[in-house]
Specification:
With 452 residues, this protein is mainly beta. It has strands spanning 23-24, 30-37, 40-47, 54-57, 69-72, 78-84, 87-96, 99-108, 116-119, 129-134, 138-145, 152-158, 160-166, 173-180, 183-190, 196-201, 209-214, 220-225, 234-239, 258-264, 277-283, 286-292, 299-302, 314-315, 321-325, 333-337.
């Protein structure tokens, strides 16, 4: 398997990868996107929790601007964020017979012309929606839907914030990546205590440490940091509340490609190592899907369905990945993908690597094809995505056997010294010019938060 480095995003100003094709509610019941009809744009709501997915267009009297944000609410309405005469206007859209109803919620004015405002990811429960206004020296968290009297300012934080990950099921604890003093660190904002801020992740004093995803069931966190390789961002994983260090697997370095995690498998109580993580892989020739588990030392590369709304999807608790897609033939579809089950590994075992010029295949990498599911395609050469596949209902995923030798449990308190990251296999390519260094996470373990 070709191992290579994640290219750092340009600027990191908002810590944003390529925009996702649509937005899903936290429970996956609804989705919303800005769809196109020729040269015009209109909101569209997808219903995903029924026997068959279906879409409802929500056009208004005039087309929307291409940069308009939409977000599904838990009751099926769609929040829309428009920029009107320099002010940020919010409304709820809903179908009314042959037309579209609209409930104005109010506007937010940013006094500084350089401030930018964007919606945060959908909150758990789906009753409220939040936005982040980023100015040159401070950031404001707004409640823009679900309040009693229109948009409400909840908290103002010094520094420029980006990201946005919910850490609990009530929508109280919000993790943000805050830039102060030239460094970015993940912090937690308690929205029920007036925006009280506490540190969450600090791997090294001079590193940029961002939180990308969090799972409520297992506590698994997916982070991005340049601590192990100064000047190069790498993906790592840890567990909320753990005193053990974040680990940065070598298999999550793909030269010439950008890896963006977008979904974690839920329902894996106390077993974060067995959670499957879905990755969007962007290369020079397209996008495809990667699946990785912390207990394994490889990424499964899967072809994306035709028309995939790239960067969106969700896991079922039994390990089926659902990917929304839209084509001319199927304007609203969901492909179900059953990745290979977790493969137990012997202590110290590393996946075999092909010889120079050879392309690995699923058998050589030790993967077992799912019964009734086509064999996993070979991981692509750098910049070459797998052959796309037409979306089709997948067969039910088999039970995932627990690894015979799982990684040490990372939750709870431990009296021993934190273990060091597992030694990766030697990559077939020369290492990056920067010199790796230890990651002293014991100096700042993942935040000891009280969430009850």
């Amino acid at each position: 398997m070709t191992l290579c480095a994640i290219e750092p995003s340009a600027g990191h100003e908002d810590d944003e990868a390529a925009p996702a094709g649509c937005t899903l509610t936290a429970d996956g019941a609804y989705a919303a996107r800005l769809a196109s009809a020729g040269d015009s744009w209109f909101p569209e709501r997808w219903t995903l929790d029924g026997p068959e997915p279906y879409a409802v267009p929500l056009p208004r009297n005039q087309p929307e601007e291409p940069g308009t944000e939409v977000q599904p609410m838990g009751d099926g309405r769609v929040l829309i964020h428009r920029l009107v005469a320099g002010r940020h206007a919010f409304s709820l859209l809903y179908p009314t017979g042959p037309g579209t109803g609209e409930l104005p919620l109010g506007v937010v004015e940013c006094p500084d012309d350089t401030a930018r405002l964007r919606l945060l990811p959908p909150a758990p429960g789906g009753r409220r929606a939040y936005a982040l206004a980023v100015g040159p020296r401070s950031t404001t968290v707004w409640l823009v839907a679900g309040g009693a009297f229109g948009p409400e300012r909840l908290a103002e934080l010094p520094g420029r914030c980006s990201g946005g990950v919910w850490l609990d099921r009530t929508g109280r604890l919000l993790a943000l990546d805050r830039e102060t003093g030239g460094r970015t660190k993940a912090v937690v904002v308690d929205l029920e205590r007036g925006g009280e801020v506490s540190p969450l992740l600090q791997i090294a004093a001079d590193s940029d440490d961002r939180l990308l995803l969090a799972d409520h069931d297992s506590g698994l966190l997916i982070v991005r940091s340049d601590a192990p390789s100064p000047g190069q961002d790498r993906l790592g994983w840890g567990v909320l509340g753990s005193t053990l260090p974040v680990r940065f697997p070598e298999c999550l370095r793909l030269r010439g490609c950008t890896l963006t995690p977008f979904a974690i498998q839920p329902g894996q109580m106390l077993t974060p190592e067995s959670c499957a993580v879905a990755l969007r892989v962007d290369g020079p020739r397209g996008s495809w899907v990667g699946v990785w588990r912390p207990a394994e030392r490889r990424v499964h590369h899967l072809p994306a369905p035709e028309g995939w709304l790239a960067g969106t999807g969700l896991w079922t608790p039994d390990g089926v990945l659902r990917l929304p897609y839209a084509t001319e033939a199927v304007p609203c579809g969901v492909a179900q993908v059953s990745p290979p089950a977790a493969v137990p590994q012997e202590p110290g075992a590393t996946p075999p690597h092909p010889g120079p010029g050879q392309r690995p295949d699923a058998r050589a990498a030790g993967a077992t094809p799912t019964p009734g599911h086509p064999p996993e395609p070979a991981p692509p050469a750098p910049g070459h995505p797998p052959e796309p596949a037409h979306a089709a209902p997948a067969h039910p995923a088999p039970e995932h056997p627990a690894p015979e030798h799982p990684a040490p449990e990372l939750s709870g308190n431990h009296s021993q010294q934190p273990v060091q990251p597992a030694s990766p296999a030697d990559p077939p390519h020369p290492p990056a010019p920067s010199t790796p260094r230890p990651v002293p996470l014991q100096q700042a373990p993942l935040g000891r938060l009280v969430t009850n």
